[in-house]
Design a protein that fits this description.
heterodimer; A: mainly alpha; MetI-like fold; disordered N terminus; B: 310 residues; 14 helices; globular
Amino acid sequence: MTTTAAPTASRPVLRTKFRSKLPWGHPGIYVLAAVVVILMLAPIAYIILGGFRTNAQISTDPSGFPAPWNIGNYIDVLVGSVFWRQVLNSTIAAGTTTIGVVVLGLMASYVIARYKFNARGILYSLFAAGLMFPMTVAITPLYLVIKNLGLMNNLGGIILPQIAFALPTTIIILVPFLRAIPDEIEEAAFIDGCSRLGFFWRMVVPLAVPGVITTGILAFIGSWNGYILPLFILNNEASFTLPLGVQSFASQYSVDTAKVLAFTSLSMIPALIFFSLFERRIVGGLTGAVKG
Amino acid sequence: MSPPVGRRKMSWATRIEIALLVGPALIVFLAFVIFPVVMAAYYGFFRWQGYGPATDFVGFQNYITILQDPTFLDALRHNGIIVVLSLVLQGPAAIVLALLLNRKMRGQSIIRVLIFVPYVISEVVVGTGWSLMLQSNGALNGMLEKLGLGFLQQDWLSDPNIAMWTLMLIITWKYIGFAVILFLAGLQGIPEELTEAAQIDGASFWQIQRRITLPLLGPTLRIWAFLSIIGSLQLFDLVYIIWGQYIASTAGTSTMATYMVANGRTSGNFGFGNAVAVVLFLISLAVALIYQRFVLRRDTDGALTEKSSK
């Protein structure tokens, strides 16, 4: 795939980057960029600002600014237990999914990338074929499987399928990464008496960190934002994750637009923080560059 | 790859290592991805309400019903429109943005992050926000009124002539950031020497982009188009959240996936729902195979020959 390259390729780029400050671009580019960014952020600003208004303000002037600013909606949401319970559920689901995907994906990718055996190609194709089965297609039978396992209304019932469906992407990203580790390192480790598994722990895991972070973030955000699976599996309000919570809140308080907007904007904060923390890793992981 | 060497070396210890390392991933994958898909194919032949074992075998009746149902054909047509419009609307815009943002300049990283923001926000938040903004007495119509453009006011969500375009606007807004980031990643793989050489030869910025950058970006573009097509065929979340399960078909935005949920789980016909899933899968698979055969072939040539040389 084009999106992954040898981890060593980025060194010269890194050096030139620190040598001099970047120049200013053409003003026209900034104007265009500003227009695009405003278009991208306006709907989000609408959600956040709307939460600071009252319903009376919203109904008299749907597109106005908060006047006066009103933090009551946000406080109502933050004081109540519903929001925090859903944050906790989402965090548990996304965190466990991420750990599961990374651990299972890394182990499987290591075998596919660095062991030479007959079934290797088949194994890789099997996981890669998983890309052809998005969750939407499998959701009805998946629901039945989870029901038979007794995992309805249980976070485990969304964690296991999420791990399974995130594996193809993870393996496809990690395999080239692990293959790029030079054979010489492996040979040297073996000569020094390192076993294959020892090599895995001491060399492969640390070297794969950038790829692991990229796949981990993709899995985390995928789980955090996931909708169709929780929609089928979680029917009990106590087990709701944030996306279901936002939707049920929106239908429950459909007349209280301001409160819905406050709830909605609070629910997107965690994903935004998480993304801004790791943005370099996401973009860097896509380019295959090892940064920082 | 030189398999004979590997085969000679393989000991039982190695085999156990392989089993221990791949086993867990394989089990989870087979149990929650492959098995459900296989079961969908099985249940698709039954009239079955989801309780007890499926016994009422109806052969291809479910499939015949699906393919003769005008609401399904509408949904299929909508999916087709979404596939084409996604490519046409997002592709060129994302390429232009990526080309412009690929120049080394101050502020490029913050611009990239901000363009990517909608992609990171969940479909539910996006759907809820946009549907409040676009409702008849929502912010968009309010703003048009204030700007003196009241004659442009529309029922953005419920008017069947407009709803599809509204959906495309939201889809473009949500997913264009992903395309831009992907293209930027592809652009960084193009050696700077090529552009520099062309500059020395007197080529203009746009000439360089057209003659050098775009052709070299080909593989990235084709992968993006593939992901976009498959995503459009499977579209569910946004439509289901904004238009709900019943209004989507009257507004002209229903998709195969919303049809599947509305006629499968919601109405308790699990056999039928599974059959819809199979149809959806087969259509995606056919499109994917055709695309791979005719478009992606030259990109994957290396990978495939590597595999088949075993």
